[in-house]
Amino acid sequence: MPADERALRAKRRLRRRETRAALLFISPWIIGFFVFTAWPIIYSGYLSLTDYDVINDPNFVGLANYERLFEDDKVRLALQNTFFFTLIQVPLYVIVSLALALLLNKAGRSAGFFRTAFFLPKMTPPVAVGILLLLLFNGQSGMINQALGWFGVDGPAWTTDPTWVKPGLILMSLWSVGASVIILLAALRNVPQELYDSARVDGANWWQQTWRITVPMISGALFFIFIVNTIAGFQTFTEAYTAFFGSGNTTYSNDAALFYVIYLFQQAFEFLHMGYASALAWLLFVIIMIFTAIQMVVSRRFVYYEGEQR
Known about the structure:
This protein is mainly alpha-helical. The chain is built from 14 helices and 2 strands. The protein has helices spanning 3-47, 64-69, 73-105, 111-119, 126-136, 143-150, 162-173, 178-189, 193-201, 206-217, 219-234, 238-244, 260-270, 274-302, and strands at residues 50-51, 59-60. It has a two-stranded antiparallel ribbon with strand order 1-2. Strand 1 and strand 2 form a beta hairpin. The protein is flat, with a radius of gyration of 25 Å.
């Protein structure tokens, strides 16, 4: 056998051994993915075609659950609330995160302390944040309205007036901007200083430097935060449920805080309509996929990656 052919066979055997070793090392993740992710997704797709209440066996009903989605007024209400929340919350979240990251980038030696201070609220359990919302935004004795009163502003009834329920939830969501601030701060630290020096020589002011250099250079991190928070916005649940639906809360502001995942949870675990809840889950999956695809397409024009060929 020629030496070249023996060497080629040896390389193939080595490659096969390396592949088997790699598969062995990642097998726990593969098994976990199929057992805890892939199979539940497939099974929920089957349940969405059935009438299932956990107690009795699933009864196949075809597309009846999906037809019901388009006739359910609560679904439309939940989608409207969720879209409104996401449309306002995500840009505001990104803007506040970027503003704080820009301030931290100028903080010098004290940046470490402020980095920790900004991140700590992210560690607060979401249930506690929901309770904190009721305390801070209470229309009668909440700290937010008390602070507004110092400036002669009569604060609204954040937790009982349907008009102000979602704005209150949006403002409360800014409690957890710390993680995004850290990501953006890391991106800012990687922007070459030479670009700013050249811009200053050309007479660019701070706003021009930020808009023409900083934002394009960290656009990858901004896009990541934008897309992750968009997905999280569509899945908003814990804080709103704790504040407005927990412990038998039945105030008239419930409908204003009825987000899509809350309605899905109610159908699944309060009314035991598992088949209908599965259909709701698949509709949410399709909506998120559509918005994610749109964002991915738009990102090709606005997101800059270092070393990318244009």
